[in-house]
Write a sequence for this structure.
């Protein structure tokens, strides 16, 4: 089991409603994946289309160590 | 057809002294004099404007583009062709901006007609144009703003069959569509035709913009593979707001102009995320 770590979490657009109160200092287990993070937040996986970790595109399987700034964007297609 | 040297003399004869925004004196020529030379010389107003700029005589309509742009830059814009695909929220604003900036050839595509629900954000849509084809309205608006712009309009939807033929020879293609499937069709055609593509999408107070050159991975970095991508996104629940649409459309126009002039930094393999709820603008690395 990894030790407790903290991330900054930003959920955009329709995902905003899943934002936890502690989004600026959100506790995660070090070594967990983005997939586990969004499952814990009850975000449907297909809605987490764009994942950014410290400003770089990540994946559902990307590992979180703590200290990261994570942004998640749903698909957006309006014009 | 008159000789180039004769054309230059005519332009010089009809030019007058003006000032650039920083008070630098310059020679300028008016819309009426450009039209007069165009009629007499048997060439288009766009060609007169290009010849004028090549003699450092600035058409008065572009005076406020100087010195951010040089006369050479403005001539490059006038020689360029941009295709705008989708003439709704994003496309209406992009069309307006590019006509004013003096992009010389605009290729306008949309098979839709205006509806009342477009009035909240689509600049080309006014009450007496409800049920009018968007491409018709866009072409008319461009000519009202800048009669020197050559306009080609297509009142049809872009699809796999017509895409390449419509966008070929474009210096830049701008994606102002409202479906993900349409965006992938446009990207495929742009890559095939070797066209540089600017793509944006909006939902509520959110939007994003990117620039895709033919050799770049492109939309799959944003939406995943085409065959697995949904056709619509968060806009189905958040709608589209005029202020956000206009802002994101302006960013598309800015990218297109930077591509044409080879100036500034581009959003290649990057995504500029706009969040007007949180007042954040962040450029993310896609690779």
């Amino acid at each position: 089991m990894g030790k407790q770590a903290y991330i900054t979490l930003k959920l955009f657009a329709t995902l905003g409603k899943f934002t936890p109160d502690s989004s600026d200092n959100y506790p995660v287990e070090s070594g967990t994946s983005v997939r586990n993070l969004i499952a814990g937040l009850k975000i449907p996986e297909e809605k987490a289309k764009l994942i950014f970790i410290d400003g770089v595109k990540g994946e559902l399987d990307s590992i979180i160590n703590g200290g990261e700034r994570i942004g998640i964007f749903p698909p957006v297609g309006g014009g | 057809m008159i000789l180039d040297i004769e054309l230059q003399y005519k332009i010089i004869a009809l030019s007058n002294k003006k000032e650039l925004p920083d008070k630098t004196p310059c020679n300028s020529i008016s819309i009426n004099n450009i039209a007069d030379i165009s009629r007499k010389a048997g060439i288009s107003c766009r060609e007169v404007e290009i010849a004028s700029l090549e003699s450092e005589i600035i058409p008065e309509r572009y005076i406020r583009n100087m010195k951010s742009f040089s006369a050479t830059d403005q001539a490059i814009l006038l020689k360029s062709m941009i295709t705008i695909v989708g003439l709704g929220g994003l496309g209406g604003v992009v069309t307006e901006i590019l006509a004013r900036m003096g992009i010389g050839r605009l290729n306008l595509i949309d098979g839709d007609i205006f509806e009342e629900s477009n009035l909240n954000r689509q600049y080309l849509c006014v009450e007496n144009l409800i049920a009018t084809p968007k491409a018709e309205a866009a072409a008319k608006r461009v000519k009202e703003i800048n009669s020197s712009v050559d306009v080609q309009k297509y009142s049809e939807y872009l699809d796999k069959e017509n895409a390449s033929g419509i966008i070929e020879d474009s210096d830049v293609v701008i994606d102002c569509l409202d479906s993900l499937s349409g965006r992938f069709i446009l990207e495929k055609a742009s890559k095939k035709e070797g066209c540089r593509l600017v793509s944006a999408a909006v939902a509520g107070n959110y939007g994003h913009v990117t620039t895709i050159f033919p050799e770049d991975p492109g939309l799959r970095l944003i939406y995943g593979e085409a065959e697995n991508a949904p056709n619509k996104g968060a806009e189905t629940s958040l709608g589209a707001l005029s202020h956000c649409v206009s802002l994101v459309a302006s960013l598309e126009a800015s990218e297109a102009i930077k591509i044409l002039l080879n100036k500034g930094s581009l959003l290649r393999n990057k995504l500029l995320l706009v969040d007007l709820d949180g007042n954040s603008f962040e450029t993310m690395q896609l690779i």
User: Anything to note?
Assistant: The first strand of chain B starts at residue 16 and ends at 19. The two ends of chain B are 52 Å apart (CA to CA). The mean pLDDT of chain B is 96.
